[in-house]
Amino acid sequence: MKTLEDSDMHTLGSELPAMFDGVKLAAVATVLYIIVRCLNLKSPTASPDITYQDTALSHYLLKSCPLLTKEYIPPLLWGKSGHLQTALYGKMGRVNTPTPCGVRKFLPMQDGATATFDLFEALGDHSTGDDITMVICPGIGNHSEKNYIRTFVDHSQRQGYRCAVLNHLGALPNMELTSPRMFTYGCTWEFAAMVGYIKRAFPETLLVVVGFSLGGNLVCKFLGENQSNQDRVLCCVSVCQGYSALRAQETFLQWDQCRRLYNFVLADNLKKLILSHRNSLLSLSSSNIGDADLSRLYAATSLMQIDDSIMRKFHGYSSLKEYYEKESCVHYIHKVTVPLLLVNSSDDPLVHQSLLAIPRTLAEKMPNVIFALTQHGGHLGFFEGAVLFPQPLTWMDKVIVEYTDAICHWEKNRPACQRSSHRDMNPCLQSTRVTLSG
User: Fold this and answer.
1) Among this protein's residues, is 348 annotated catalytic?
2) Minimum mean pLDDT among 38-52, 175-189, 247-261, 352-366: which range?
3) What's the count of helices (H) and strands (E) in the chain, helices before strands?
4) Alpha-carbon distance 126 to 157, whole Å?
């Protein structure tokens, strides 16, 4: 004879499979929701948001550079996540990376440092027939052997550009320092030495200046420091820089967009790079770095701590604030008069949205500046592809060369009296602000 408890147990037993199925379904739904949110799959693709002034040059550039006005389409499954774009760039740089053949140049500096850069000759004639050299400044702690630099150099060579790539002081593996300092956020000495060498070695060449991330800050500061630095410069392109280190330092301590975590990872990489040169930094008699500074370096968990204990002392700055103020391009970039393309991504986890007001305001006020803000791309990612696998060339690689080609043809077709300095803008151009939004 069945009891009431037996009947309840039988009913519960028959419902358990259905309950487990419901839990599984809920778990799957939750995972899918998280994936969709994390991968940002619902975000639509769009053309870059372009801020510029209504000038003849701007109209010509936007007509000649379709990549700036058409949709940027990242790989469907992961390309809409700025974190994954940034992580893939950080881990592998690029896919199917070529190995361009260049010659390494060594330049002795006045303070005893030895600057180095790699020179890559063009693999054909430029479409204008002119001799044009790209002078390239990589990102923090990077050099010519990084995959993203190699890919960009190979692409530029094939379009007829000679390329000179700065190796940040102390960044090359197995290259000892010859003075007690390394690269810093805005020291332009080595870049200036490279540009000076190119001008002397190739007296007929015209220059295109390109900077990535920290390199973008450095090249814009270099051009704005002295008007003569813009001689023979056709244009400048800056990608994914932050413009003001002083404003950026507070955002790097926030957990928004995991920025604090990125700060820790970047600091750890920089720490390892500095410590690889600790013998040189300590042994040279003119060094400003002591054992106590290295002790603080070991304990550092952020870029700001490293900058305060080590980096600012290379040039004798009395405080971190002074270091950030003097080395940021925000105080120099408005003096750049050559055509200037500033590129950033909205989902760049390293560059806070508040910093993007700087290039946008600049483009609203200066007729030579175009600011392109993509919706996706991360930090120096900008991968393109259909569903899963990215293409070898990125949107960034292609847009820099496309913009540069357009500038070269614009300059070639101008009357000789207008292009003698390679930097004067047409004073008759209209100066009204226009913003294109995709």
Assistant:
1) yes
2) 38-52
3) 14, 10
4) 9
The candidate with the shortest Cα–Cα distance to 184, out of 316, 299, 359, is 316
Distances (CA, A) of 391 to 86, 95, 144, 324, 371: 16, 7, 21, 37, 25
* DSSP state for residue 66 in the 8-state scheme: G
Catalytic residue among 308, 379, 397, 405: 379
347: Cβ contacts below 8 Å, ≥ 6 apart: 40, 80, 81, 82, 85, 375, 376, 377, 378
**How do residues 334-349 score in pLDDT, each as one tens digit?**
999 999 999 999 999 9
**Helix 395-413 to helix 147-158 angle, to the nearest 10 degrees?**
40
Residue with tokens 């002078």: 135
DSSP 266-310: HHHHHHHHHHTTHHHHHHSTT----HHHHHHHHH--SHHHHHHHT
> Residue 37: is its pLDDT beyond 90?
no
Give me 355's structure tokens. 């910093």
pLDDT at residue 32 in the model? 40
Active site (annotated) includes residue 424: no
Q: Is 379 a catalytic residue?
A: yes
Q: b or e along 286-308 (b: 16 or more beta carbons within 10 Å of the residue's beta carbon)? A: ebebeeebbeebeebebbbbbbb
User: Quick one: pLDDT at residue 430?
Assistant: 39
Structural element, H or E, at residue 265 = helix 259-275
Residue in 308, 347, 348, 397 annotated catalytic? 348
The domains found in the chain, sorted by start residue, are: 49-244+333-436 (3.40.50.1820), 252-327 (no CATH)
